[in-house]
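Appendix B. Raw example, untouched.
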Amino acid sequence: QVQLVESGGGLVQAGGSLRLSCAASGSRFSISDMGWYRQVPGKQREMVARISRGGYTNYADSAKGRFSISRDNAKNTVALQMNSLKPEDTAVYFCNAVDLLVAGVFWGQGTQVTVSS
């Protein structure tokens, strides 16, 4: 089983930037797609950005042009660079990964991002 741990969240002013990171660990795993999702109280969790092991990316419309997802397969990490942050970006951001070894989807605990106006 794979464990995912996010880092990099925090408080930032509107227009600022944050970089979220997620590290996968475990004794046995084979990660394919990875992604970042976010959730606010009373709303469903939504996809922000995804990236395949080969580097293909997909972004939510709200993230296009402002966010960039990347990964380091050797280090089993995925990052989300968030620029031009807006108050509506405030949410708990979750790292997600597909583990082919156990054919399962795994989530991190989440990291809070708060953007002040």
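End of appendix B.
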